[in-house]
Amino acid sequence: MTDFAATKAMFNLPEGVLYLDGNSLGPLPKSAGDRVQTMMRDEWGELLITGWNKAGWMGMPTGLGDRIGRLIGAEAGSVVVGDTLSIKVYQAVASALELNPDRKVVLSDNGNFPSDLYMADGLLRSLGPDYELRVVDPKTVADHITEDIAVLMLTEVDYRTGRMHDMKALTELAHANGVVTVWDLAHSAGAIPVDLAGCNADFAVGCTYKYLNGGPGAPAFIYVAPRLAANVRPALSGWLGHESPFAFDLDYRPGTGIERMRVGTPPVIQMAALSSAMDIWDMADMADVRAKSIGLTELFIDRVEATCPELKLASPRNPVQRGSQISFRFEEGYAAMQALIARGVIGDFRAPDIMRFGFTPLYIDEKDVMQAADTLTNIMNNKLWDTPEYKIRQRVT
Amino acid sequence: MTDFAATKAMFNLPEGVLYLDGNSLGPLPKSAGDRVQTMMRDEWGELLITGWNKAGWMGMPTGLGDRIGRLIGAEAGSVVVGDTLSIKVYQAVASALELNPDRKVVLSDNGNFPSDLYMADGLLRSLGPDYELRVVDPKTVADHITEDIAVLMLTEVDYRTGRMHDMKALTELAHANGVVTVWDLAHSAGAIPVDLAGCNADFAVGCTYKYLNGGPGAPAFIYVAPRLAANVRPALSGWLGHESPFAFDLDYRPGTGIERMRVGTPPVIQMAALSSAMDIWDMADMADVRAKSIGLTELFIDRVEATCPELKLASPRNPVQRGSQISFRFEEGYAAMQALIARGVIGDFRAPDIMRFGFTPLYIDEKDVMQAADTLTNIMNNKLWDTPEYKIRQRVT
């Protein structure tokens, strides 16, 4: 049984803040600052270039990959860390297309995270006018899995509403139609139990700065099914994916298994921070995390719906159909979220009208949820959002 | 006049070590550990998601880009930091090809860093059989710049020998033949004065963990000439290169100027370390760095050649034709480098027979160079390399 009091104690949670935005950027593990400081002083500072071997930097991408792999049902040696999620989406889709050379269509849905669509669109444009990115409504994805589709590229959990696709059923349907699958786990890894091996998934990608708490700009990860890895010709064929990077051959030969999905020099300092976060994740069982997550989200919905009739639930009501976040629609949602943030309850807003709250059992408990719901009720019932200060939208960039 | 005693005092240089491998991984700036610790504790820890605005994380890629830009003769607002160098090579070459749609050949040379060739080859393979990566001898590049070439992709300073291409002359010749240029500055930025604007360069890329001292896995940078930026359709079109990333539109619209070359979420912790290194670089004038670098390399060549006849200079003898490193060929170079490292002189070995020494004026001075030369002389004259222990080659991965 996961000891959630112990995991909560391992995070830095600012006084007076209820943080329901761990699905955007997870909080700081208390050990991460010292871990990074020590790595910089003792490894970079003293070992210098020899740190790549002596401090094991070179093995970190696969070592961290295996620790993430446990949370997403991946086989050992099938996940590697590196780059950003956008880059890993590109790499996965381009590599998947090469496995299906006679087909030209990538199928996705309009609930996918925009950067996934941008990256795929850019890739397909470069491949020529025969290629097509087909974007359909999430509800109709199954109907569009046909024998002209090369790659099915979906984000399992919708970033706005938390709505979940059925990974197992859609992957089965895809395979029955000769389609290669790419699953984006940005809102799945650390949020819900994922069973990549059990679903027979082909490629998967995700980020580590949300539920996994790796810190701002933490690297992404990529999964390739072991049955495919030896046949994948990796797109973005960089030197650290080469069979023998330090031979400096002029010709590329892909490395063994998942190693071939590495590209350039991995971000060692970011990986040191991520390893602190994974120390906490190593204490967690995803079944426990899921059970607690459902309890927290049900509690939040119940209390908010009972007291705030203006807020309309945008997430699926059935907990098995959603991830670990709850979203409500409200026309003045931007202002209401500013009012919440001003009172120490941090969620976020997604245009045009979505107020989004992430529930992260490692450091959020029932008391937090009740307090957040009470603050929201106070704001809604007393129209505390209705001030000019909260209504002026700030550009984020 | 750059105060090199002051810059040297700002680096952590381990006792008993003479570090001539700053061209692989620069040493730790003394301020970097605290800077990163503070960023993690006060910004990530306390500001959480609001750090993107309140701590200015979102602006770091262009802010650091401008500081690097000063060292490479780039216009303000023409450099952005992110990803790895391999990814930036891909992005630059793919974007350059789009500017020259009627041509199918990328010209490079066999002195280029292998990952650049791997990335370009992977890109061209994906574009189809009409595309060609033409790899020629570095001496003959000018002869091969013809009107069928779309993109000229060169590393300015050879990673093994330090031999330099003439960026200005080759760019002029390229433009006269309608060729778009991509310059890799991995061994140039912080090593020699670069004048991208004065050379009329089109694209340039580089890394920040070598001469720039950004730390292991520090991010790369990319330059696009301002006259081109508005017309570049960026390959790797990620959300942070979008005109309005937080509108979450389904369609990609490139951002203004260099912003469009951003891809995914930038590595904030790595960038904090890099900013410490750039504080030191802000104190340096590249003309002073170059003058001192030439003095140090000339001194090293003179002393080694006078005492070690077995070592054959692999770098150009004329200092204006080389970067800030010196390489010698020696059949037992691997063992000799191990003998040097065992005695605290850190250089590196590049197959098959190159002993490579980087000279980094910010923290290496004449006394260091004389001492390194004396140690090498002792090893060579007494055949101290000739022990089984040094001859067993260790795999670096």
From TrEMBL, chains A, B:
For pyridoxal 5'-phosphate, which residues are the binding ones? 85-86, 113-116, 155, 184, 187, 209, 239, 265
Q: Which cofactor does it need?
A: pyridoxal 5'-phosphate
Q: What range does the record give for the signal peptide?
A: none
InterPro entries under this entry? Kynureninase, PyrdxlP-dep_Trfase, PyrdxlP-dep_Trfase_major, PyrdxlP-dep_Trfase_small
Q: Which reaction does it catalyse?
A: 3-hydroxy-L-kynurenine + H2O = 3-hydroxyanthranilate + L-alanine + H(+); L-kynurenine + H2O = anthranilate + L-alanine + H(+)
Name residues in a coiled coil.
Answer: none
Pathway in which this enzyme or protein is active: Cofactor biosynthesis; NAD(+) biosynthesis; quinolinate from L-kynurenine: step 2/3; Amino-acid degradation; L-kynurenine degradation; L-alanine and anthranilate from L-kynurenine: step 1/1
Q: Which GO terms describe its molecular function?
A: kynureninase activity
Entry EC no(s):
3.7.1.3
Q: Which EC class is this protein assigned?
A: hydrolase
Sorted alphabetically, the keyword list is:
Hydrolase, Pyridine nucleotide biosynthesis, Pyridoxal phosphate
**SUPFAM superfamilies tied to this protein:** PLP-dependent transferases
Annotated positions of the N6-(pyridoxal phosphate)lysine modification: 210
Q: Name one Pfam family in it.
A: KYNU_C
Q: Record keywords: Amino-acid biosynthesis included?
A: no
Assembly:
Homodimer.
Describe the function of this protein.
Catalyzes the cleavage of L-kynurenine (L-Kyn) and L-3-hydroxykynurenine (L-3OHKyn) into anthranilic acid (AA) and 3-hydroxyanthranilic acid (3-OHAA), respectively.
Family statement = Belongs to the kynureninase family.
What protein name applies here? Kynureninase
